[in-house]
């Protein structure tokens, strides 16, 4: 019998295929679409599962959806009715979506299946399981237990939020439920929201933040928010929450209880947030412990199975294990909604069809969760060749030796092998690996690889046979779902000063022999590696042990913040290039970042912290005197003439005399930006923060994607260098130039403080750029041409620096959209800066607000330009129009193949209409428009 399970339309869509009781394949849709937590119908995941199982859709006996949409619709309607008239506006907004995705979901599923396989007839094959039955089935049926208590806890299914059941043989009986709106999962998510993290994703961050705080608010939560009984049952006081009928998780009463509004995601994390995180974590643990104690005492059973989103709280799981009320615990690795697809398929096979289970009391039925796609050598080679990657192909043993050596040398390794994992954890097939004994590795991985908050802990992978040598734990933990303490003998004794630290100050204190995976409370989220489930990863850890003496490595998921774990070789190469990862081991192919170079770059010359050789090769003296420059201590030197160009305040100054100072416009603009460096960093100290901001900005993220890998980029008018530093991702080498030494000083400080090798900065005059013609793949100037004495001539100057076939990106103030800015400047002089949209909504720092106002409204020189004017510049300089941002009215926006795809500039009427439309859009933020062209060969 072949059963296809589906989860979709809420969070983390997935598909799973069960063939004759064996899990043949399972995968989340996000891995294929690259949309985090993709909730659409899992078309790609279904296609993969069917291919892996060697069946067509019409050969599947049953298709099972993971919950009952009509019951969920009933719950939604009854909830709004109970709280009416509160929430009427959100009800009106949500009702059309509910009708499509809940009331008529069966029809929607049938339509999706027919679109997937035209001619397919789902009648009689499509059935629906209950949400918590799906969770329970996913926990019990793959477990190695004949009999067990099953506890499922999540946000909400149809009505249930917590259920207790018993599994025996091939049957499950649900005997107890807690119903919505009383939900431990939603309580935790409400605090996730309040602390400024993303609901259904940031709960891990709250759990990781908790050890930095003290549970000072735990009693407050128990007194006001949750009525917790001795047996673990509970009720949640809804007067503090808005999740039943509103668009927020918490309300004003909640804010008053905790003394403030929810933290904005971009705000710094204070000790208060750490203490609140510690408090909700402590309450969650107490709920789970009371539930499991009561169930153990009531049933006398030895085995416990866990599923549902709360079962991913590995700290709570570890405490249940250590209490010992149950002898054995098994947790579904895909415990959230994705696992519901698998549970639905297993429920149909065992419960509804009555087919028996095959139980291995030593192993479980999840095959290590390695249930996703694998790629053979030909597929990997074709992918790498398509990216013009430099790689070696080795035999497996030689590659493993190379990787072990790289880890020993404190390099960061992308490890892509075999079948992709199912669930939220990378378990040694789509992993980033690093040296656990390195004191600096936790910081390096967070800030330069994952681009996330520095406090986030990392998990260890350890050989199962050596587990007790390193951790106070001696049970299997193959799915990284149990937290244990580092063994006492492996801990480092802290000094009195270190003991006195609190909050985030604890972060950089090494606490054990394996500091990269030891959290501030001496805990670690452990993965045990077994030779029978992942022999390749097991062999690698043996080789690491031979070199380092420790059979432990850092194992974190192969992705960056806000992206799904990689699925394909293309995904792996892209992530490798977009981070500071040193090595990629993909199948039996190995890539080293140092060998991936810009294609046409000369790499000879002195390497220095200030100037990589790739960019040094592009320089020439200003004024046309000489053909090259060499880096010497404290300056550049022209070898042909002997002319020296010294560093000023650490910034290389490549100017010819002081001619520019006699140019009134240039001199005034330079003086203005020396006093008001723009944009400034607003206290941003970490490259990860800059990357996160860039990836969330539509223009910069799209620009990076379009540029791709291994490019030479020139940014003219780089200011304080945010874009220059950001675009150095993807192994790009970026030269940022500006006239303002104070701006460049901030840019250089950020580069050096964060150890960035590929960007460089120099002082230059845009009309006499000290770089060779036709040197760069991309030239960008998005904020300086309109502050020069002759924008047209400046455009011609920068265009000469791009290679034939290269890209020119230019940003200018728009002659239409800038008019409101001019009018606002008059009003600001009377009413003050708070009438400005950006100051009012986006800027917290008073100094930055002051600089923004001066730059936008009181700049000593600016010019305004039209699309037609820039098109004339394109024609004069042999540049073919590609695209503009915002998009031209009447166009389809950005083409499917990217920002640099060739588009039409439209006709004059379209262009005028487009620019008039900007009066209601970009005008409120300065009316900067972007035009993109390709220099003709």
Core attributes:
937 residues, alpha/beta, Nucleotidyltransferase, domain 5, DHBP synthase, 4 domains, 7-stranded mixed β-sheet, 32 helices, 32 strands
Write the layout of secondary structure elements.
Elements: E1 2-7, E2 14-19, E3 22-28, H1 30-33, H2 43-53, E4 62-65, H3 69-83, H4 88-103, H5 105-116, E5 126-128, H6 131-140, E6 147-153, E7 160-168, E8 171-179, H7 184-194, H8 203-209, H9 218-224, E9 226-228, E10 234-236, H10 252-258, H11 271-299, E11 303-307, H12 314-323, E12 328-331, H13 337-352, H14 377-386, E13 392-393, H15 396-408, E14 413-416, E15 430-435, H16 441-450, E16 460-463, H17 467-470, E17 482-485, H18 496-499, E18 523-529, H19 535-548, E19 552-557, H20 569-578, E20 583-586, E21 589-592, H21 613-616, E22 630-632, E23 635-637, E24 644-648, E25 651-652, H22 664-675, H23 687-695, H24 698-707, E26 712-716, H25 722-726, E27 733-738, H26 741-753, E28 759-763, E29 776-781, H27 791-799, E30 802-813, H28 819-831, H29 837-841, H30 846-857, H31 867-876, E31 879-885, H32 908-917, E32 928-935
Parallel strand pairs: 1-4, 4-5, 6-11, 11-12, 14-20, 16-18, 26-27, 26-29, 27-28, 29-30
Antiparallel strand pairs: 1-2, 2-3, 6-7, 7-8, 9-10, 13-21, 14-15, 15-19, 16-19, 17-18, 20-21, 22-23, 23-24, 24-25, 30-32, 31-32
């Amino acid at each position: 019998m072949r059963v296809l399970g589906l989860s979709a339309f809420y969070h983390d869509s997935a598909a799973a295929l069960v063939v004759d009781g064996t899990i043949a394949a399972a995968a989340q849709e996000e891995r294929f679409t690259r949309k985090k937590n993709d909730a659409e119908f899992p078309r790609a995941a279904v296609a993969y599962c069917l291919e892996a199982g060697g069946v067509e859709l019409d050969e599947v006996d049953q298709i099972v959806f993971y919950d009952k949409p009509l019951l969920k619709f009933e719950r939604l309607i009854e909830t709004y009715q109970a709280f009416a008239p509160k929430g009427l506006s959100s009800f009106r907004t949500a009702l059309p979506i509910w009708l499509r995705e809940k009331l008529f979901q069966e029809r929607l599923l049938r339509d999706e299946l027919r679109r997937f396989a035209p001619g397919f007839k789902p009648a009689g094959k499509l059935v629906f399981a209950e949400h918590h039955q799906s969770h329970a089935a996913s926990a019990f049926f793959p477990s190695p237990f004949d009999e067990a208590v099953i506890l499922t806890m999540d946000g909400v299914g149809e009505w249930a939020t917590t259920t207790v059941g018993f599994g025996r043989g091939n049957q499950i009986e649900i005997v107890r439920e807690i119903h919505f709106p009383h939900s431990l999962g939603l309580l935790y998510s409400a605090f996730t929201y309040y602390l400024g993290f993303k609901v259904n994703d940031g709960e891990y961050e709250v759990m990781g933040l908790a050890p930095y705080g003290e549970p000072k608010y735990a009693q407050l939560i128990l007194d006001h928010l949750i009525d917790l009984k001795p047996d673990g049952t509970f009720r949640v006081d809804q007067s503090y929450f808005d999740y039943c009928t509103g668009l927020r998780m918490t309300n004003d009463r909640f804010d008053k209880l905790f003394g403030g509004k929810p933290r904005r995601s971009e705000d710094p994390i204070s000790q208060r947030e750490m203490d609140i995180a510690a408090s909700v974590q402590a309450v969650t643990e107490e709920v789970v412990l009371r539930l499991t104690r009561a169930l153990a005492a009531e049933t006398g059973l030895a085995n416990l199975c866990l599923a549902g989103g709360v079962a991913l709280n590995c700290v709570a799981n570890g405490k249940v294990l250590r209490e010992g009320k149950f002898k054995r615990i098994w947790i579904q690795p895909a415990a959230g909604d994705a696992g519901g697809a698998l549970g639905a398929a297993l429920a149909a096979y065992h419960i509804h069809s009555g087919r028996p289970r095959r139980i291995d009391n030593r192993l479980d039925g999840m095959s290590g969760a390695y249930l996703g796609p694998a790629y053979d050598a030909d597929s990997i080679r074709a992918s790498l060749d398509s990216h013009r990657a430099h790689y070696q192909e080795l035999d497996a043993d030689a590659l493993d030796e190379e990787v072990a050596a790289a880890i020993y040398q404190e390099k960061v390794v992308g490890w892509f092998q075999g079948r992709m994992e199912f669930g939220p954890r990378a378990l040694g097939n789509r992993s980033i690996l690093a040296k656990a004994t390195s004191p600096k590795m936790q910081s390096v991985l967070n800030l330069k690889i994952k681009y996330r908050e520095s406090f986030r802990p990392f998990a260890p992978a350890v050989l199962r046979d050596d587990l007790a040598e390193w951790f106070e734990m001696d049970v299997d933990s193959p799915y990284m779902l149990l937290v244990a303490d580092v063994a006492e003998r492996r801990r480092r004794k802290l000094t009195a000063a270190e003991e006195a630290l609190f909050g985030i100050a604890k972060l950089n204190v090494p606490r054990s022999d394996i500091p990269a995976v030891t959290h501030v409370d001496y805990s670690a989220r452990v993965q045990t590696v077994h030779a029978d489930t992942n022999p390749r990863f097991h062999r690698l850890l043996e080789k690491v042990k031979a070199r380092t003496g420790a059979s432990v490595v850092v194992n974190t998921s192969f992705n960056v913040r806000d992206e799904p774990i990689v699925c394909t070789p293309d995904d792996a190469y892209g992530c490798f290039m977009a981070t500071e990862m040193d090595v990629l081991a993909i199948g039996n192919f190995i890539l080293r970042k140092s060998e991936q170079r810009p294609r046409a770059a000369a790499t000879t010359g002195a390497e220095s912290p200030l100037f990589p050789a790739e960019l040094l090769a592009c320089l020439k003296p200003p004024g046309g005197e000489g053909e090259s420059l060499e880096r010497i201590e404290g300056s550049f030197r022209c070898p042909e003439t002997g002319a020296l160009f010294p560093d000023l305040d650490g910034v290389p100054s490549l100017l010819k005399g002081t001619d520019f100072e006699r140019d009134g416009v240039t001199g005034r603009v330079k003086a203005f930006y020396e006093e008001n460096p723009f944009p400034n960093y607003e206290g941003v100290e970490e490259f990860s923060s800059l990357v996160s901001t860039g990836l969330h900005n539509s223009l910069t993220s799209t620009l990076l994607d379009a540029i791709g890998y291994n490019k030479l980029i020139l940014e003219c008018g780089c200011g304080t260098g945010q874009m220059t530093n950001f675009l150095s991702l993807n192994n790009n080498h970026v030269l940022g130039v500006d006239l303002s030494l104070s701006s460049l000083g901030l840019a250089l400080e950020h580069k050096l403080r964060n150890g960035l090798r590929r960007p460089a900065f120099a002082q230059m005059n845009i009309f006499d750029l000290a770089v060779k013609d036709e040197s760069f793949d991309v030239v960008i100037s998005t904020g300086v041409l309109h502050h020069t004495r002759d924008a047209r001539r400046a455009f011609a100057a920068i265009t000469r620096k791009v290679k034939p076939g290269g890209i020119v990106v230019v940003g200018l103030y728009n002659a239409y959209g800038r008019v409101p800015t001019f009018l606002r400047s008059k009003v600001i002089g009377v009413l003050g800066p708070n009438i400005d949209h950006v100051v009012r909504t986006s800027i917290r720092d008073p100094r930055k607000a002051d600089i923004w106002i001066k730059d936008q409204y009181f700049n000593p020189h600016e010019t305004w330009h039209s699309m037609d004017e820039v098109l004339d510049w394109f024609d004069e300089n042999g540049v073919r129009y590609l695209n503009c941002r915002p998009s031209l009215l009447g166009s389809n926006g950005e083409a499917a193949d990217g920002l640099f795809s060739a588009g039409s500039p439209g006709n004059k009427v379209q262009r005028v209409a487009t620019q008039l439309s900007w009066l209601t859009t970009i005008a409120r933020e300065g009316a900067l428009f972007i035009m993109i062209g390709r220099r003709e060969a």
